[in-house]
Amino acid sequence: MDQLIGGGKPGAGKPGAPAGDLVKDTNTASFRADVLDASMQVPVIVDFWAPWCGPCKQLGQIIEKAVKDARGAVKLVKINVDENQQLAAQLRIQSIPTVFGFAGGRPVDGFAGALPESQVKQFVDRLLAAAGGAAQESPIADALNQAKALFEAGDAKRAAGLYGQVLATEPENVAAIAGLARAQVVNGELDKARETLARVPDAGKADAEVAAATAALDLAEKSKGAGNLSELEAKLAADPNDHQARFDRALALYGMGRREEAIDELLAIFKKNREWNDQAARKQLVQFFEAQGPKDPLTLSGRRKLSSILFS
């Protein structure tokens, strides 16, 4: 990890602006030089903001981090709309924060409102693609990719160690916080996972990875209190329509890693009685899917099965 933090991959990416020139403030008079002309060489993100705008400050920090992570492949120009009202009117800025991406002297992408870090990174990637370039992967990004690969391969302990080292360098890195919490849940360190999630900055609370980590932790805590699996199975043998026993069995199975069986148990409840306990089976399925992530094969198959029941 020390090597990862200390330097990137030689020859990777495309040379761009020097580190000290990545972020700057500009005004109406300098807009052409700082944005239009500059974007002929390097894509430029333009952030329209105001000092009184709270979401602007949160988004600004996220964009600055994304720009620095791109290691010179893209630049950021900040424009205070209160001090440059004529320019804001010319560009039809109707609300703030508003962000434009310029490449080749013209706007090619943009968005309005605050976005989480993951979506800002996607915006930067789209801008770079539109400009025909690519960001050089930062050591932090490389470390996060390694940690994610370790976690998905079942090595939660080593993944946790790598996520922790990323956080030692970037304490508010949302992806590292969420990843560490997920690893701690798998390692049975639920109290530590709760403490880790408490470190999420306000700007990252809506991040999908944070939501997945929170759902995974909640599920782990529920599973601990689900009851003895043998006793639950005995109850179901005596009464197959005991929905509470089947529901608790689903939680217990999920906590044991038997996810597909757990999903099938909840689907069985929902198929027999959709409204049982205020649609508890459907709501629990949604939490399973959130914890697993939208691309997980069991999420995809589970959603298809749920839809077939809903529309049958």
In short:
The chain contains 15 helices and five strands. By secondary structure, it is of the alpha/beta class.
Describe the protein in words:
By secondary structure, the chain is α/β, with parallel strands linked by helices. It folds into three domains: 16-130, Glutaredoxin, CATH 3.40.30.10; 139-223, Serine Threonine Protein Phosphatase 5, Tetratricopeptide repeat (Alpha Horseshoe); 225-310, Alpha Horseshoe (Serine Threonine Protein Phosphatase 5, Tetratricopeptide repeat). Helix content is 57%, strand content 9%. It has 15 helices and five strands. The protein has helices at 2-6, 31-37, 54-69, 85-90, 117-130, 139-152, 156-169, 174-186, 190-197, 208-224, 229-238, 243-255, 259-272, 280-292, 297-310, and strands at residues 23-25, 44-49, 75-80, 98-103, 106-112. It has a five-stranded mixed β-sheet with strand order 1-3-2-4-5, with helices on both faces. The longest helix is centred in the last third of the chain and has 17 residues, at 208-224. Mean pLDDT is 87; it is low at 1-20.
